[in-house]
Write a structure and sequence with these properties.
The chain is an alpha/beta fold and 429 residues long. It has three domains: 95 residues, OB fold (Dihydrolipoamide Acetyltransferase, E2P) (Beta Barrel), CATH 2.40.50.140; 148 residues, Rossmann fold, CATH 3.40.50.2300; 73 residues, no CATH class. It contains eleven helices and 15 strands. It is elongated. The protein starts with 8 loop residues before the first helix and ends with a strand. The C terminus is likely disordered.
Length: 429
């Protein structure tokens, strides 16, 4: 009995690796992407699964760079590659070289993915799009210098406006490096020629692959970042690119873009003639209105008899003056009555008022009023104030008789009064 062959772990792993790589090379596998992860080195790791099974997959950076669309979890794809193993983990995996979406082409999928991404950022919003100048003086064209598009554009511009200043930025419009050239040309025109009024970016017709440079993100962002208004003109009328959605205006073809950007001399002349007619009509209507107003004014009563204009204001002035004087007189009358009343009150309160009834005011030599006889002594000089006139008096001595007018000790005082113009007299006090 022969001894069974004993394999080392490494020998067994190498054998399995050989069998798998020999028998499962260059195959296509369809499944759903899950567990998607991109390493810092740019390698893409994922699982490919169906309803019952799961297989690990990897796409190294070199292959991933050629992808036209982004892998996403849940995406149904077809993967071309081969089966291999990783010796240290005894794990087999699918090494992917190409991935295609199942049911939709890779270019179309890439188009839809980028469109959705840029739309979510607001790059398609109408609010950010700028108007195209009606009469541009300087136009830039970003396209191939040898294609039919540039010939059509130049021909139409020359025919419609021969003196137009045109700057052509020659670029590749398809193939490797085309997207970079287009994006750079847009940036260079913005930085080097800020006085450009409008820019045309596009090319003639072709397949989706031929037009693909205008579906690249780098071109879309260059158009969105342009300070110069951009008209996209890519392919035929039925062709739509990402550049069309980002640009300020889409023209269905390069020729149509040239016609849109510059009005023909015939159109300009027709517009000017139309504006002239409208202006003359407006002036005629304005003149007729003024003429009608003038006629009505000339035939009016005020113009026939100008004094009519003064009749009503004069009457109003007279009424106002009369009213003002009447109000003033009434106020003066009431004020006079009030003043007289106050004067009467003041008279009644005046210390001179009792003098009219025969009383007199007695004052000593210092001018102080004498209120009682007890305050007097013989020889005191007095001043007597009457209602009319004034007299001086001298206290002679007490009156022995007593009675009314006596002093505090029962004595009366005698005074000798000397009038201003008569003989003196004695008076009891």
């Amino acid at each position: 009995m022969t001894e069974p062959r004993i394999y080392t772990v490494s020998e067994l792993s190498q054998g399995i690796k050989y069998l798998l790589e020999t028998n499962f090379r260059e195959l296509w596998v369809e499944g759903e992407i899950s567990g998607l992860k991109v390493s810092s080195l740019g390698h893409t790791y994922f699982d490919l699964k169906d309803a019952n099974s799961n297989i690990s997959g990897v796409m190294f950076r070199g292959f991933a760079a050629n992808m036209k669309f982004d892998l996403q979890n849940g995406l149904l794809v077809r993967v071309r590659g081969n089966i291999t193993t990783y010796d240290k983990q005894s794990k087999y995996q699918l090494m992917a070289k190409e991935v295609q979406p199942a049911g939709i082409g890779p270019l179309q999928l890439a188009f839809e993915q980028l469109k959705k991404k840029l739309q979510s950022e607001g790059l398609f919003d109408a609010a950010r799009k700028r108007p195209i100048p009606a009469l541009p003086q300087k136009i830039a064209v970003v396209t191939s210098p040898t294609g039919a598009a540039i010939r059509d554009i130049l021909s139409i511009l020359k025919r419609r406006y021969a003196n137009m200043h045109i700057i052509v930025a020659p670029v590749k419009v398809q193939g490797v490096g085309s997207k970079e050239e287009i994006a750079q040309a847009i940036k260079d025109l913005n930085s080097g020629f800020p006085d450009i009024d409008v820019m045309l970016v596009g090319r003639g017709g072709g397949s989706m692959e031929d037009l693909w440079a205008f579906n690249e993100e780098i071109v879309a962002r260059a158009i969105a970042g342009s300070k110069i208004p951009v008209i996209s003109c890519v392919g035929h009328e039925t062709d739509f690119t990402i550049a069309d959605f980002v640009a300020d205006l889409r023209a269905p073809t390069p020729s149509a873009a040239a016609e849109l950007v510059v009005k023909s001399k015939v159109e300009l002349a027709a517009n000017i003639a139309g504006l002239e007619r409208r202006l003359l009509q407006s002036l005629r209507i304005y003149y007729e209105n003024l003429q009608g107003k003038f006629r009505r004014l000339v035939s009016s009563r005020a113009m026939v008899n100008p004094l009519v204009l003064l009749e009503r204001p004069t009457r109003r002035l007279d009424d106002a003056v009369e009213g003002m004087f009447a109000a003033s007189a009434d106020r003066l009358r009431r004020a006079g009555e009030k003043l007289n009343l106050q004067a009467e009150k003041l008279k009644a309160l005046s210390p001179l008022f009792p003098l009219k009834k025969g009383y007199a005011i007695v004052k000593d030599i210092k001018g102080k009023a004498v209120k009682t006889a007890a305050a007097l002594t013989p020889g005191d000089r007095l001043s007597l104030q009457f209602a009319e006139g004034r007299a001086e008096a001298e206290v002679l001595g007490p009156d022995k008789a007593g009675g009314a007018g006596s002093s505090a000790d029962g004595r009366k005082q005698k005074t000798r009064t000397k009038g201003a113009d008569g003989p003196g007299q004695e008076t009891l006090w």
